[in-house]
Amino acid sequence: MSMPKPDPLADLPWPKPEAPGEAVSAKICGACTKNLCAKRGLSAFNRLALCVAVSGVVASFGYWFGLRHHRSELGLRMGVYGAVGWALMQAAVLFIGFAPRRGLLGSRGARMALAVLVPVLFLGYLSYAAWSYVPFEQFSHGARAAHALGCGLVALSFGAIVGGSVLLVWRGTDPVTPRLSGTLAGFVGGVGGALAVGIGCPSHEAWHLWTAHGLIVLALGLMGFAAGRRLLSP
Amino acid sequence: MDRYVDGEAEAFEFLYRRVSPNLMGYLLRLTRNRERAEDLLQITFSKVHRARGSFLKGAPVLPWILAIARRSFLDERRSAQVRTEDLSPDGSLPEPQNEERPLPTEVSDALEVALDRLPENYREAIVLTKITGLSVAEAASVLGATETAVKLRVHRGYTQLRKELEQYSRTP
Fold it and tell me: What ipTM score was computed for the predicted complex, to two decimals?
């Protein structure tokens, strides 16, 4: 009976870790310990609460705007219900996407799945919330298009506030996948902005919701992707 | 790390002594140049210093620092690619140097040469798991890949290393 062949790599003389030069070490230790003071950032829970609070403030502004412009009570109520439901989704995205990553929750696969699911689900929600439909030819001309453009720009601004706050609050926390985290931050911002405008916006036409409220989620996701590496990488 | 975040200078020095050899070894294998590796080591620790407040308490330190180092290396390489070529003092483009290495005489030298010849993603996976001593899960978190992908890269890297070393053992 022949003996199994030993793995030729098992006893290989793998290189040992190498210490850096004395001068470099002294320079690094000097720079990193000079005037060293405690620097404890916010906990993951506080960061998450802060981001949801910013989204809440923006949504409140949308509610105030709706009240001022005498939006129907039913419309306001539906908008608020939607915003509360999506606030839970925003919290889940922030928790899975940004909080301490251990186990399945927070794994790269789960975060990638969120990056696909959030915009798809939100567009689905907008389709469900649309009460009427006009053909695109009618929508794309005149007052409807102008209203959609105005709504889209306001939603983009609100979304930039929410998404920007997420990027700032979690700044420098993701050295591994900052672009993916940035995309998620953009989606959270986009959803926040679109819902805030949705509370105050009287239109419930499908094309209006898809373009003025839905497209900005995708646009902010792209912006987050671009800004993520700069802001979220330490 | 937690004591360093709380402002203890001795804790940083202890952390540095523990982490820097592994980090330097990793950067040397990424850059294949000692000066660049030392520059990147400084950049990495300055980033760690700035971002220490965002370190999540209780998380493993070495993968976090290695991930920062890897990101710094990729950023530096990206900016080097768009940098224009430096002219020599006489105004001409410098000729590329022929960097042929002498044939290895020891197994350890042969292993170094074989490691250098591996594709970057295989080499990184092997360096992190075999030389730096990370688990597959930790290496996956540094590389931003799945554990299965890291295992596959390590296995393919091993196969290629084995071929290279067999060739070495056949040479007289």
Answer: 0.71
